[in-house]
Design a protein that fits this description.
CATH class of the largest domain in chain A: Alpha Beta
CATH superfamily of the largest domain in chain B: Glycogen Phosphorylase B
Shape of chain B: elongated
CATH architecture of the largest domain in chain A: 3-Layer(aba) Sandwich
Largest sheet of chain B: 7 strands, parallel
Shape of chain A: elongated
Number of strands of chain B: 13
CATH architecture of the largest domain in chain B: 3-Layer(aba) Sandwich
Distance between the termini of chain A: 16 Å
CATH topology of the largest domain in chain B: Rossmann fold
CATH topology of the largest domain in chain A: Rossmann fold
Strand content of chain B: 15-25%
Helix content of chain B: 40-55%
Number of strands of chain A: 16
Number of helices of chain A: 15
Oligomer: heterodimer
Number of domains of chain A: 2
């Protein structure tokens, strides 16, 4: 099977890279298209990288080379593609540079990772390529709410797609609103390579309660709620230290820190290497996910695997991973009071309760978030789409 | 000091409609026979028949070639038009330990101002004075700086020393509230150099003849505000979700646009307020006035706020206002007398306050509304503002 895993950029986000690595070990041939961030993408046996560098000169040469190949060997296909794109008024150079190589290599399945770009790829079906869409995060959960045109695009195209991969049941339900066929949908939970996330017991309770959050600066991460919760903890006289990793703080966060006098309790680090992040997770007493919206947050899975207790808001598909007080704590979304209470509860928890919860969490990850399982399911979805859906 | 003859005002761009206070200020000065020149950073949307002379900064042109051309012209000016002033400015920047390149850039960027002889040079926002702290001195003018909110409370968060040089220069400050005056004094500015001039609105336009308010359901809540995080709209929506859970029937209209639309639409969706909340975007003044007329309660639950003209307008139109205690809002509204001021970031307190108002005695409510109307028309009208500005420049 030739599978194009398309996210528009090479290398892509952690979870998409994880998928590519997993597929490489199976008998799929993976094709990558899009913008190459650097020339140093590791070369692998089953993975072919056909991306382009985002410089004007490279782009011209790249476009010309594919145009020439298509004109000489597959001129009729090329013209058909042009007609298609013109119909959608998407006949631009910056679209052609994306679509020519896909037409040339003709994968069996075009697996598109982000829904927003779907319109540019509907043509592949005309050339016998099956199209699978991953339903992930914002692209499904809120972008179409604010952008009516996008919602229209989804409604027009979702019914035509060959299959869907939902990262959680919750997001699958959202996609049904836009006409996605439930029967063509498979929920495949994100998987971790368990060997690189070894479980370790909490060493000892430190005198200062250590809270950690990980995530970029975006409103959907809900940091204003976690900081509100910190403010409440501070007013209650609790001694804690809150660390946020991966955040490049904007005015909103900075202002709140100053306004609520939290500067001495909160530390923000914008970018850290993966190893260090793992170390911080292991060192923390609790990993807090205050998000407003998520598919299923990867950091939560990682913390659960590593043995750190998780307090998460009940957003998106988080309740498909966390069962309240069994393998973590779930709190209502947009509720600083509940976050503060949950953190307090964890800080006062006995060692044995803490241990039971984190052991259960590790068990959950081993059961439902193993990378092998994810890859098996994914290749299953590919072959089902390719061979049985005639 | 006597009445000045020429005043230069530095702004980011030519004031649009919503910045009536700036246009009003200019008109007020002109009526006193003072010549006003406007220096703008961005050369966009400059009307041909603006009320005063406008000069655009060399780097503010949207077209690249024009920018380069103007830069070359500026270098010509440095060399041949006012070399002495330019050199003096360069020396002053060097003395304040700025690098050669930075100092030269600062000289280049100040060219349109160096050409003029002025009595006062007034920077419309704190950040506009950064890197131009010495220009006034070089051209022999007095210097004034206005702080309007974000420039005092937000800009220094990312650059803590941004005003170090400015606060060391001799300069007069205009701020919007006593709170801001206090905050400036805390940063080492001499309080005698700070003047509070409250914002003003057109009280003749925003006038309502309706006397008694009887709340009818669905209640109509209103906010006229940019969709910006500092306006606290997410917290407002959460408060309204509480009200909905308690069975209160309402409609909430938000007038304004901004970069947080997606965030707020998602909040509306998640809090199950799709039927109750409307975002109607930017509206004309007449439409805004109509919205005030129809509203039962005005909400401004900001996280950060300089002063907020919309709250003044709502008061003038006789709508009961509930606001947060963000900076200037606590002076805009006197808690319990002309409206209600409650702690920010606490949606439940906001919800409870609204419920309290709904149960309030009509006579008490009328008293508060009348007092608010009266106070706005006495203290926040344009004549008062114009007069104060003329006085400001006389000192």
């Amino acid at each position: 099977m030739k599978i194009a895993v398309y996210s528009g950029e090479i290398p892509s986000t952690t979870f998409i890279e994880r998928l590519i690595q997993g597929l490489e070990r199976s008998d799929c041939h993976v094709l990558l298209f899009g913008v190459k961030a650097s020339n140093h993408y590791p070369n692998k046996k089953n993975v072919k990288n056909f991306g382009y560098r985002n410089y004007r000169f490279f782009k011209i040469v790249y476009l010309l080379s594919y145009w020439l190949r298509l004109t000489i060997f597959r001129n009729r296909d090329k013209k058909r593609l042009h007609r298609k794109l013109k119909k959608l008024s998407r006949y631009h150079l910056n679209v052609l540079i994306k679509v020519y190589p896909v037409l040339w290599y003709k994968p069996d399945i075009f697996h598109i990772q982000w829904a927003k770009g779907i319109q540019d790829w509907m043509w592949v079906q005309d050339f016998g390529i099956k199209i699978i869409l991953s339903l992930r995060g914002a692209h499904i959960n809120y972008s179409p709410l604010a952008d009516r045109n996008l919602a229209e695009v989804y409604k027009q195209n979702f019914p035509k797609l060959d299959a869907f991969h939902a990262v959680s049941n919750a997001i699958g339900k959202e996609a049904v609103i836009y006409g996605a066929d439930k029967n063509k949908m498979l929920t495949i939970l994100s998987g971790l390579d368990l060997k690189s996330f070894p479980f370790s017991k909490r060493r000892s309770k430190s005198p200062v309660f250590r809270i950690l959050s990980i995530g970029r600066d975006h409103w959907k991460k809900g940091y204003h709620y976690s900081l509100d919760a910190c403010s409440k903890l501070k007013n209650q006289g609790m001694d804690f230290h809150y660390q946020i990793v991966g955040l490049n703080p904007d005015f909103e966060v900075l202002y709140q820190l100053k306004d609520s006098n939290l500067e001495s309790h909160v530390k923000i680090e914008s970018h850290l290497p993966m190893d260090l992040v793992r170390f911080y997770i292991q060192e923390a007493d609790v990993l807090l996910l205050p998000s407003i919206e998520e598919g299923i947050a990867n950091v939560v899975l990682e913390a659960m695997a590593l043995g750190t207790l998780v307090v998460s808001s009940d957003c998106g598909g988080m309740n498909e991973v966390i069962e309240h007080k069994v393998n973590g704590l779930l709190v209502a979304v947009r509720d600083p009071e509940a976050i503060a209470e949950a953190l307090k509860e964890v800080s006062e928890m006995t060692d044995s309760t803490y241990e039971t919860i984190v052991m259960n969490a590790r068990d959950t990850i081993e059961r439902q978030h193993d990378i092998e399982e994810m890859i098996n399911k994914m290749t299953g979805l590919y072959s089902k789409t390719l061979f049985f859906d005639k | 000091m006597n009445k000045p003859q020429r005043i230069g005002i530095v702004l980011t761009r030519v004031p649009g409609y919503s910045e009536t206070f700036l246009v009003n200020k200019i008109v007020g000065l002109q009526n006193q026979g003072i010549e006003v020149i406007l220096f703008v950073d961005q050369n966009v949307g400059i009307p041909k028949d603006f009320i005063c002379k406008i000069k655009c900064m060399p780097y503010g042109d949207p077209l690249k070639w024009k920018r380069y051309f103007k830069m070359v012209l500026s270098i010509w000016n440095i060399l041949f038009s006012h070399p002495q002033r330019s050199y003096k400015l360069f020396r002053m920047h060097r003395k304040s330990l700025r690098s050669r390149v930075r100092s030269f850039k600062n000289v280049l960027l100040a060219q349109p101002i160096l050409n003029e002889s002025l009595d006062w040079l007034h920077f419309g926002f704190g950040v506009l004075a950064v890197n131009r702290e010495f220009v006034a001195k070089v051209i022999g003018a007095s210097m004034a700086v206005s702080f309007r909110g974000y420039d005092l409370y937000l800009s220094p968060l990312k650059q803590p020393d941004i005003y170090k040089e400015l606060f060391a220069t001799s300069c007069r400050y205009h701020v919007l509230s006593q709170e801001m005056r206090l905050d400036l004094t805390n940063q080492g500015v001499n309080s005698n150099h700070i003047e509070v001039i409250y914002p003003a609105i057109d009280v003749d336009f925003f006038r309502s003849e309706v006397n008694d308010i009887v709340f009818s359901y669905p209640l109509k809540f209103l906010s006229v505000t940019r969709l910006h995080w500092k306006k606290g709209l997410e917290y407002t929506l959460e408060a309204l979700a509480h009200l909905k859970n308690e069975g209160i029937d309402f409609q909430y209209t938000i007038i304004g646009e901004g970069d947080q639309y997606e965030r707020l639409v998602f909040a509306v969706h998640q809090l199950d307020l799709v039927k109750e909340v409307r975002f109607i975007g930017k509206q004309s003044p007449a439409q805004v006035k109509q919205a005030y007329k129809e509203a039962d309660i005005y909400l401004q639950y900001s996280i950060q706020e300089g002063f907020c003209n919309a709250v003044l307008e709502a008061q003038a139109m006789g709508i009961p206002c509930v606001v947060s205690n963000a900076e200037g809002l606590a002076e805009n509204i006197l808690d319990g007398k002309t409206g209600w001021v409650i702690p920010k970031r606490a949606p439940i307190i906001l919800a409870n306050k609204i419920k309290e108002i709904l149960l309030m005695d009509v006579s008490k409510l009328t008293e508060i509304r009348n007092m608010a109307k009266e106070r706005v028309s006495d203290k926040f009208n344009m004549e008062v503002q114009q007069r104060k500005f003329v006085e400001f420049y006389k000192k």
